[in-house]
Amino acid sequence: NVVRNYTFELKKVPLAIDGYSRLVWAVNGQYPGPMIRANKGDTFNVTVINKFGSPATIHWHGIDQKGSNWYDGVPGTTQCPIPNGVTFSYVFNLTQSGTYWYHSHFVAQYVDGLKGLIVIHDPEDPYKKEYDYEYVLEMSDWYHKPTGDFVPEFRSPSYHGGDPMPDSGQITGVGQWNCTIPACTPTKFATYKVEKGKKYRFRIINTSAMAHFTVSIDNHPLKIIEVEGTIIEPVVVNVLSINIAERYSVIVEANQPVGNYWIRANMSNCSLPGNGPATINNETTVFTNLDITGILRYEGAPDTLPTSEAYPANVSNCHDQDPTTLKPISLSPSVPTGDATRILLVVGVQPRPVLQATINNSSIVMDFSYPSNKKVIDGAGFITSDNAYPYDTPGGAIEIILNNTERTRTHPFHLHGHSFWVVYQGEVGSWNQSLDSLKYNFDNPIYRDIVTLNEASLTAIRYYADNPGVWLIHCHIEWHVEMGMVAQLVELPSLFKQSTIPNQVLELCEAYDSSNS
Ligand code: C2O
Ligand code: CU
């Protein structure tokens, strides 16, 4: 067990990601933040020094936090925010391997920049010998204004529009924007160098606020081998569909003539408003001119732009890669197929003027100064707007049914504290079918930590209750989080009551309260 120590200094720095300079909520001056790496079984000790001038937290997306709920990084659920000027250490063991990421979970801070990649190597990875090098292909939408400038307007009852629209997009810190103002310096393209005859593992990750991506590399098929930490039987695609917060590893063979090839990351807006155009930040609701590109450059190729042709777009935007094609290799334990404790969550967006994104008709209201996990230990009760769902049978199978009642939007849902089996993913329009007749897929279903709810459909996920604490389940479209499309799962409260929250976590609340008074 090796302890991997990292220090993150959080500071706002001016960066021109897409040519346009703005203040970025950066880690050690970088965007995306530094990648952190470890081996399965190691421990991370990440010391965060907050110099943002405002509070912050960091969530370790996809990391189970087995036995360390208080290091999950969710303000109001697992900790109080880290006030400006305070240093705090996240310490947790790694029982998983694969591709993960970290991001702020405090207001919309990750959209302003606080995010980075986590890679956990497994010495027993069956694909280890099938590639020579590895790369990260991180992509997202990008906003020119700090989110604090428009979120209050977006949240106000008098606003009648959709989600705030991005200005551009970026690949691994390099974006393109129609650079027509004097204050803009045109950027180059994110460029990945390859050597003919070699094989590359690309860890692909979408860290957007709201954009779904389809990703391809001209003339180079993508062999999918990992989905969010789960090693799968290989699936070869030309175009990969990747929703917010999802991760895939693919193997790319540099077996084409020496030259330059476009890497294409095309954005879709899957959050089209049902009641009028968006007016915040950008006048359009259709993502035009927001597609981003990078270059795959062979050693020996000239420093010129590619002329390669795109694959036909044959995947459906705003949906997941077909989950029934993604087959885990040697997963243990296996999917619970018997009776399960069922929790039904109905997902919707209420129209303006009361616009809120809801789960079971309630929008969460976070109390940053009294985290839910502390409430459980104190024996304090929950109220309706806490959106809290308890279950208390150790080892029991849990089934969450997500009923997306919306006809025009898809929502990428993420669960904290667990990966889960996707045991049912309904067709568009299947939202009102009877739960008794659900046709589960128990045939080695995919195990992951994000699933996209199709338009007006039912989705069922399962996992075992073996991780005491309070865990979020939420849409990962940041604007829906801002509107409250979040619920809390109170897992094994009787067991959790016996645990002791470390002092440095409790002290955060005192520091936060005094910084606020
Ligand atoms: Cu990527 Cu609640 O998190
Ligand atoms: Cu959503």
TrEMBL record:
Keywords on record: Copper, Metal-binding, Oxidoreductase, Signal
Alphabetical list of InterPro entries matching this protein: Cu-oxidase-like_N, Cu-oxidase_2nd, Cu-oxidase_C, Cu-oxidase_fam, Cu_oxidase_CS, Cu_oxidase_Cu_BS, Cupredoxin
Q: Name one Pfam family in it.
A: Cu-oxidase_3
Q: Name one GO molecular function term.
A: copper ion binding
Q: Which residues form the Plastocyanin-like domain?
A: 13-124, 134-300, 387-493
Identify its protein family. Belongs to the multicopper oxidase family.
- What's this protein's name? 16067_t:CDS:1
- Species of origin reads Acaulospora morrowiae
